[in-house]
Predict the 3D structure of the following.
Amino acid sequence: MADEALFQFLHNEVIQYVNTTESGETENGRCVSKLENMGFRVGQGLIERFTKDTARFKDELDVMKFICKDFWTCVFKKQIDNLRTNHQGIYVLQDNKFRLLTQLSAGKQYLENAPKYLAFTCGLVRGALSNLGVKSIVTAEVSVMPACKFQVMIQKM
Amino acid sequence: MSRQSNRSTDSKKMNSELFTLTYGALVTQLCKDYENDEEVNKQLDKMGYNIGVRLIEDFLARSSVGRCHDFRETADVIAKVAFKMYLGITPSVTNWSPAGDEFSLILESNPLVDFVELPDNHSTLIYSNLLCGVLRGALEMVQMAVDVRFAQDTLRGDNVTEIRMKFIKRIEENLPAGDE
């Protein structure tokens, strides 16, 4: 029953740590991909434990809905606000008040740091999908914090 | 539709797994980045400290615990309120030193190590060392310097996990020079 604040603090420390170890000219890209990889592992573990009693998913869309509703609720205490798809393997998940950004959302000062705070979650989603048999690339974009969009591109096998 | 019913089961538990797994990913990353376990232990302690100095505000704000009058009371608050609130466990407070400045927290179960086994080549890794840092950092913010270390760890084959805490001194508030 770990408290949520504890996770947020830990998340901040992880970012801080990765950021300091990866300082250098290419720092941002390396930092983001390291965080993404950590998220991937966690996502894999979580989804496995989480879906062990659930029925088989109908299709890809069913999987995505599961991520938006149940998975998101458990991890971030709310659902994804908007899910869109072009029905050709691209899904956009919009969260209007993303938990891990709310603390740095006053003003535009930290906007450039936002990608680091989203990288772990991108990995989380990619890891979860990957263990459900859906290979994907997940990226995030922010325009006005704390709202953000996660774009999931399904890789056809 | 049948799935709907047994989904959303216990989000509390899920959330604790998120924390446990994230912590695991962090330790794994640290083991990759550093040469030896000593360095990893030190880094975990440091990160814990950073968490502790922030966590204490959250704790004081939400628990409405007042000032502690002695170290025994502090020990009780840590075990019964803080651990309960953040990790959902209540360690027992025992093994007081005669002088009353040192005690042990015995953790029957440790949520951080739920899915963990230590490989042989990491025999000196103190996996949960973050906790020591958190306690040290948090207490420092309430003017208490303490020494915290793991005395026993179930990961290394002990029966229980034991955190030993020793009171060092009260930190006097240092006003900045020229600030009366």
